[in-house]
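Box 3.1 A note on notation
Throughout this textbook, protein chains are presented in two layers. The first layer is the amino acid sequence; the second is a token string describing backbone geometry. Keep the layers aligned when reading.
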Amino acid sequence: MRFSALKILAQGLRGNTGWAPHWRDPEPKDQYDIVIIGGGGHGLSTAYHLAREHGLRNIAVLEKGYIGGGNVGRNTTIVRANYFLPGNSEFYSHSLKLWEGLEQELNYNVMMSQRGVINLFHSDGQRDAFVRRGNAMINQGDDAVLLDRDGVRKLVPYLDFDNGRFPIYGGLLHPRGGTARHDAVAWGFARGADQRGVEILQNCEVTGIDVEGGVVRGVQTSRGAIRAKKVAIVVAGRSSQVAAMAGMRLPVESHVLQAFVTEGLKPVIDHVISFGMGHFYISQSDKGGLVFGGDIDMYASYAARGNLPIVEHVMQAGMTLMPMIGKAKVLRSWGGIMDMTPDGSPFIDKTDIDGLFVNCGWNYGGFKAVPASGHCFAHLIATGRHHGAAAKFRLDRMKTGVGIMDEEGTGAQHNLH
């Protein structure tokens, strides 16, 4: 079934009784060519591109819960390509281009809104850093506009420009950046993969990975053993735990990142705005809620919930940046489990176990990476070669120190990224 305006009108007149399920609910087979552990955005994108780009069909995506219930549904929906370092810059540029054609490709409304991302700066040093970043973005083929104080005020006049501690000097505008509906992205990729023959197995938790003689043979699950020629680990904050099932120790720590949304309000924030002195970022959803977040909770955890000091920290940063939100009621909050690497950049690579692949370490960049992550990971699984856009996301950079991509310049400490 293809979506169209005519189809929506017809279904509305029929009481919406004619819609078919977006994807099947099959029973697991004994064996697949490829098993993807993790039914989040990255795993489903990988399955979709394996089927679409490489013609592979005998694929299973294993999700321990339900589609859209993990990190892909626990983020602040931001899409951008304003990275600085070689390796990251070309990858996120590639991802943004895929985002821009995603709805047409999937025939699914992921509510992509290129409303623009504004990164504020509050000192001469920060201005110089954003000038360099903006030039790198333009050289990469993306867009960047340096705004002075008056330029920022013209776009977002409701900010506190004269704050005594953090006066606003200007900002870097990334016009093609914006937001997308997080769970719709998962549903769109799931539907697209299923249409191409991929089997999506929900409530199918992986409990073990079978390795014989240095070669992966399959997985053990809550729904029985499944043999496979290739196994891909794409489980975000659970990466270390799942890799340990194969005897691997990944250079990844898991931390909680909280996010918040207010009651629905009239349209007031047209852009995504990032506070340069508090790691605070905010946008407004199509339903009117202000969606915002800040720092991770700074301690390793697998719990999808956060602590109150960070709640207070985020609220303080929001009030410092835009006091007007002080009377908005916070409707709900949630926590996503972030897989943090020592240099703040991800891994898309083969492992030392033949047939076992890993995709993890997305830090704060997971959602915006979904289309390109799946595209590049599928290329690696299908061909055995790294895609050019993800060629530097290798595990061995942690062993050799060559190719480290410390985007924030904060050193090799997981919780600082």
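The longest strand covers residues 290-300. The CA atoms of residues 279 and 294 lie 5 Å apart.
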